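for the recovery benchmark. tokens below, seq after
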């Protein structure tokens, strides 16, 4: 089947894109094709489909928060064509059989390319490393206990050794429970003023320090999930200098928000890791700008209205992000003049694909026709009623941004159109 996308702006030039059997077969001005499947991009940007290596789709176990269908449709609305889903599900897919069932579930229900991480240890919390070799036969994107730090060094070391053998990454939610201490936001003056229990930022960096010593010994590819502290950024910078195979992601909220913006006890400002100090936020921005941090990942974490109501003391951790990431990052980093669009696409497509070995991230002849058409000209307001996700728990509601997705294609098929 043929499809023609007319008048897309690619690297500043208006071009047509010819798609045949799901692949891009030509990019040129004024392509003539006999197909009736024509989409006119009207001069708006045609970008490679974005990639988010950190999303929570909640199925099975928590379908009231999100399903694979709703999460993947929301992703398409955000301009994403590939995501990697986290395994904090119920049941946790911590055996080869359960993992294979999850792969099948994703394939049957997702409108985009949903890849899956497998757990490091049983139930994401015990000390027994999963049967990684068996699970690996079903092609996990890597191993992670996201939602929980790996508390026992021996468990992490064993996991790293096995992951190295299987040539798969370890993705680390770094968090030492003893330094979190039941906290609801970053420990410090703001938490004190609001009377909220604090989470030490050292809970992240101390466990990262431990892990990096083991990365050096095992040689595993180690990916830092949702980096949030200045100490962590500096350690990753140093690890890269030493030639360790370390990559890192930062969320839009950790570069755009910090604890000083938490003005009242507001559950929409509660996530893990928490919004840190301004110095941490600036270090994350600097890390992104100098390549220490490789990519942006949303940590899309939908919850119900009830779970995100009341006090931060009891509300669930996490915010949605998949439908606002592109516009927020574009508005604050590209529109503001800090970086160009190509750099943003490095962070949101090229480098995620490289780090996780996905055949995606570029819009070029010969690639799968995964792309998104985006209007960066017209300002709009982020509204909960525009979300496709079941979760509306975003601290960015009411913000004015640039970067509205008009249509998204996966293997040449329309999966979202405005
Ligand atoms: N980020 C969060 O605050 N919450 C995530 C878990 C996680 O990413 O650690 C969730 O699953 O809700
Ligand atoms: Zn996490
Ligand atoms: Zn997460």
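predicted aa per position
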């Amino acid at each position: 089947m043929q499809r023609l996308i007319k008048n897309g702006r690619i690297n500043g030039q208006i071009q047509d894109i010819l798609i045949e059997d799901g692949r891009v077969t030509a990019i040129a001005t004024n392509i003539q094709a006999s197909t009736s499947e024509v989409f006119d991009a009207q001069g708006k940007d045609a970008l490679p489909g974005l990639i988010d290596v950190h999303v929570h789709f909640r199925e099975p176990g928590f379908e009231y928060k999100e399903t694979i269908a709703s999460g993947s449709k929301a992703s398409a609305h955000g301009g994403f064509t590939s995501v990697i889903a986290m395994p904090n599900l119920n049941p946790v897919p911590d055996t080869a059989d359960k993992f294979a069932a999850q792969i099948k579930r994703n394939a049957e229900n997702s409108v985009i390319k949903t890849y899956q991480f497998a757990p490091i240890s049983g139930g994401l919390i015990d000390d027994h490393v999963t049967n990684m070799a068996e699970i690996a036969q079903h092609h996990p994107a890597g191993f992670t206990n996201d939602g929980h730090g790996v508390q026992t060094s021996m468990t992490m070391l064993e996991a790293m050794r096995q992951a190295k053998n299987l040539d798969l990454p370890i993705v680390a939610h770094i968090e030492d429970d003893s330094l979190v201490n039941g906290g609801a936001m970053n420990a410090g003056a703001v938490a004190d003023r609001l009377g909220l229990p604090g989470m030490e930022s050292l809970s992240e960096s101390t466990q990262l320090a431990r892990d990096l010593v083991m990365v050096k010994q095992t040689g595993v590819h180690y990916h830092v999930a949702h980096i949030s502290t200045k100490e962590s950024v500096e350690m990753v910078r140093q690890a890269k200098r030493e030639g360790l195979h370390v990559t890192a992601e930062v969320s839009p909220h950790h570069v755009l928000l910090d604890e000083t913006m938490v003005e009242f006890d507001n559950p929409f400002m509660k996530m893990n890791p928490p919004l840190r100090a301004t110095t941490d936020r600036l270090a994350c921005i600097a890390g992104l700008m100098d390549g220490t941090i490789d990519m942006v990942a949303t940590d899309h974490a939908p919850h119900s209205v009830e779970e995100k109501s009341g006090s931060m003391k009891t509300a669930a951790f996490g915010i949605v992000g998949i439908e606002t990431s592109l516009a927020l990052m574009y508005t604050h980093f590209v529109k503001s003049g800090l970086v160009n669009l190509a750099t943003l696409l490095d962070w949101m497509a090229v480098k995620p694909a490289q780090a996780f070995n996905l055949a995606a991230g570029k819009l070029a002849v010969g690639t799968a026709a995964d792309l998104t058409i985006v209007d960066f000209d017209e300002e709009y307001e982020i509204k909960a009623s525009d979300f496709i996700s079941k979760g509306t728990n975003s601290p960015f509601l009411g913000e004015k941004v640039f970067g509205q997705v008009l249509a998204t294609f996966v293997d040449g098929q329309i999966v979202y159109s405005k």
